[in-house]
Batch of 3 targets.
Target 1
Amino acid sequence: MKRFVMIAAVSILMLPSPGKASTLEDKIMKGKQISSDNMKGNCLACHAIQGAEMPGNLGPPLLQMKLRYPKRKVLHDQIWDATKKNPQSIMPPFGKHGILTHEEVDLVVDYMYSL
Amino acid sequence: MKQTLFKRSLALLLVLVAMMAARQVVAADFQANVQTDIKVFRDFFAARFPEVKFADYANGVYAIDADACQQWKEIEEFPPYSIAVEDGKVLFEKPFANGKTYTAYFQNGGVVRQNYPYYDEKKGTVVTLEMAINECRVANGEKPLEYKGGDIAKISAYMAFISRGKPVDVKVESEGAYKAYMKGKEFFYAKRGQLNMSCAGCHVKYAGGWVRSEILSPALGHTTHFPVFRSKWGEIGTLHKRYGGCSDNIGAKSFAAQSEEYRNLEFFETVMSNGLSFNGPASRK
């Protein structure tokens, strides 16, 4: 009985809840939208991402992100404020300059981890 | 008594000579500093694009990309700016209400593109061609024209056209000119706007790079070919309209066309292009 309740609870948790990016897949989708929206991340202006057409090339291609950034925070920080690592960086400090919120950067990180 | 007077005048004379000499040295320094900047600027592009001939930088992005250049040459066979040049000629030759024309104000039949921008010592500011066109109008009792496009861009296009081939040779010879130059230089290198970018970031450091489907032009030669007929605008527009567009693109405050900020920026960018030839107007994407 106890076990049944647990399974039920887990399956309810795993149901996609409408409106919220709850499942990882949803989050990845939202992160992808943010990173290709030219009023938001617009990452494609400067980075090649697999499957994207007409990317720019000012920054390195974004691939194998999980391997290269095992720590979420490091990747989050890079997107939040690239000038911390490289004061001369042309990459916009998305969080620091109020272009993306922490929540949005998190979604972009989820998307990056799927690459 | 006479002797002390003589001594005093001699001392005064010496002081004056020394002051003049000092001024000369400082003046020489302005030009020398600028010359050093020009060399650094040019050397950067020479190292970045070793195959590009210096004179070709007057062609903007087409100097550095063979594919885009080929398309552009095809467009230039029936240049989209030719109507603007014809209209500009008519406007330029049409007498004002007082019977005079622009030719009374602009020497040499209007072949004066190469004299702008310059630092006007009396006015204490940089004077651009578009600004001079409006000053001429106001001096003749006419209303000034709007600065971004329309008639002023047409008149400027005509004057650029008849001045084609004249060398860019902007001088920075006084303290005032040097200050204006330095302001333009600072503007060019400063990061600004929500995206925290500088003109130099896109048009020096990453010149030749791609921002999605656009190739970034080198800043060397930026000002030689304006005004331009841009297919995106669907009409001829001035350099300061373009400056405003690039400011908007990075979420930065754009300044008014012919504001002191943009005139100083034009002054700096044109000094950097000394030695190229004026070749406006031009067509762009």
Target 2
Amino acid sequence: MEPSPSADAANVGTEGVYVYGIVYAEADRLTADLRGICEQPLELISSDSVAAVVSRVGDADLSNRRELLTAHARVVEGLNATGCVVPVRVGQVMPDHQAVAAELLAPSTEHFHGLLDALLGRDQFIVRAMYNEPAVLAEVVQASPEIARLRERTRELPEDVGHADRLRLGELVANELDYRRRGDGAIVMDAVSPYVAAHVMHEGTDVHRLLEAAFLVDEDCRRGFEDALEAIAEAMSERVRIQLLGPMPPYDFVGG
Amino acid sequence: MTVTSTQRRGGGYLERPAPSGLADVVELILDKGIVIDAYVRVSLVGIELLTIDARIVIASVDTYLRFAEATNRLDLYEKGKDLPEVIQEMQEGGAQKKTSGAIKGVKKAITGGDDDEGSSGRPAKKSSSRRRRQEA
């Protein structure tokens, strides 16, 4: 384990070492233009074949959440652009360089190396598919006589009357949407699954959302992945919008 | 070296919103990544809990009433029009609903209110080329 060349004597107390991510240990891994929280220089702390990317922080630096989140994201994105990185969660601070090497890296070198190997040559994307509400509600009304009937009955009534009917109408519509969500979500998943190495589903409250998932995609499969999404977006365009985010660091595929 | 193209292919139906600020970042990274058993951890616990709770799908009276209202408002049977045509008109004119209030509340708490909606229609900013390493 090697302390960084510019390390001062350990400065415990109000200072710590903020960890952004874990990378393969390579001499030229960092670029000078990429800075950490409060513009601090990044440092590489190695242990065997893996290394942690860190910067020094004081208590004051940590109190500004906006700066913290922005800098963290910027550093991880920057590392992802120039190689492979295992992102560390926002807000992880260790006492000093020795602790990073001895307590974070050394006990888990194989594990981190394995993660990096699994991520090498792959990018993460996030796909969101959302219903066009008027279109899908019209479908639901057309498909269900009971919904159509309740709709007719309740739309004539003033606000303070017909509460039970409205609840029933809303519940039926909600159930129909749940049913369609599953089917439509599966259609999108089927379209992309030949091109993905791994996926993680995201849960959500947005009632319009029929799917959100993170995908890990080989560089070689990326074109096919995007083309498949473009094709399915076009096929479903009258009732569903599909958004593609990324490529981005593999936040969803490192556990933790 | 991966050559990236920002040219939109095909019919342009797939939306690629550009990352538009802190709110998007927060949502993507807040509870993701390796957790270290560290001696100091920035206290984001309250916000983490909010984010996680907001992700639980809740079927509630409010939701049902909202669906009923939205279904009632559909203008399906205008004189002389058939359904597909009416749907197309609704799509063209209809405003898209915003995401749930809980997520927006979390974003506001962290970003101080500058909640940018990701805009569609622009190619996503892609990461620059990555070196491909050879395994030894």
Target 3
Amino acid sequence: MTDGAQHAPRNGSSTMPETNRPGRAWWRPLVDEIDRRVTPPANKLVRTNIFADTVATATRLEVRLRRRVQRQSTWLLHQYNLPAAEDIRKVRAQLAAVEARLRDVSEHLEDQQHEARKQASRPARSTTTKATTKPTTKPQANDPS
Amino acid sequence: MEASPSTDRLEGIRQEAQRSLFRARHGIQLITGTREPVVGATPKDVVWRRGKAQLSRYRSDKRTRRPPLVIVWSVISRAYILDLRPGQSFVGQLLDAGIDVFMIDWGVPDAVDSGNNLELYVDNYLPRALERALEVADSDELDILGYCAGGVLSCLAVAGHPETPVKNLAVMATPIDLGHIEGMIKSFRRGALEVDDLIDETGNIPADAVYRGFASLRPTTDIFKYATLWERLWSDEFVEGYTAMAGWIRDQTPLPGALARQMVDLLLRRNVLVTGEIPIAGRTVRLADITCPLLNVMAEDDHMVPPAASEVLSKLVGSTDVTELRIPAGHVGLAAGRDAKRNTVPRILEWLNAHSS
């Protein structure tokens, strides 16, 4: 991911004059040597099945733990008739679902208007063939209920 | 006249003091986050918008070549990498070559977009955006350039919508055989991880998880990157380039939950792209239906989408005119930085020019 960063420009209008450009830092060969020794085995390790499974297990454990804490804190807050983050999440998800539905309806209307405009202008440009507008259905945002 | 050793020593001390001053200034700017690099500066106009997706047309007074080129960006990262910095801009180079450049950017999904799926991008957004590009450019045909997952969407849109007048299709670092993709993807492929394990309260895979997935492929990069930064912290230009690129790398977008589920089930576990027949919206989209000239650009040192994952596309399409291009670069270097400027863009331009008549 950082190959570009390494290729970032190294010449040009630095505020340091070009003649003042220093040579390599004294510690750089040491860092490069460590890089040469450490990076290949590390890259190899992250491509093994064991690594993939370990990361997956750690992720699942973390998620399970977080959800358990969330459930318990929600239960506790509900005992005192207080809203928990989970309740807010549900409301936000419902709002998002409504907004997504509205978006679909307005897009559908937009498509119909566009199609009507195209039909109206077709006699004038009957030879032009362009991408058709094919109405598609799409699922709504996650409904928490 | 030669300087005396004591003068040399004094000059050396003076330079080192000056560099230390610059290091301190840049270091403080980086730590406090007050150094904001200018990215995506090439002027453009949004000519179409739907949901979070938008099609922009870059302004230019040099448009000499037809048809227009529509860049289809990936759904995972931010599109400004192609216009990272003035003088280092992929888009800028295309504009200088006289191309009318459009860009489809999918935006940053939120809870409203958690239901966005492959059908939405391939059958709804892309055909409409391409149609709008044709209208705006007043052209009867267009060229498409897809990058990474944007390449997959481009292929599916071209194959699934033969009515779209695509003259040439170019794809860069496009994952087709997902059996070759490593990292967190492997955990999904092996069934050790499910999409629902990563989905957050918005119904999407959060940007941070996407970033961690990519970063895990090169675990030591961050450490050695800081060594390079420290070494060159005195240089304004280096720090500018570093902050722009490092900022982009961290600036991932969430992945819509519905799309993530489809990608894992369909593209990863069933690896349907490699069969050339992809079920979308109740029909089968066949890559063999791509009959326009195809340019398949691969990065030889790509650790995310290795050439083995992309090269199969050349065999799956129905085009008789297929060109494979291997650039000695990494996944990001293919689109930004020195390698892109010297290799990728000139060679893509060469191919487009050869196929423009």
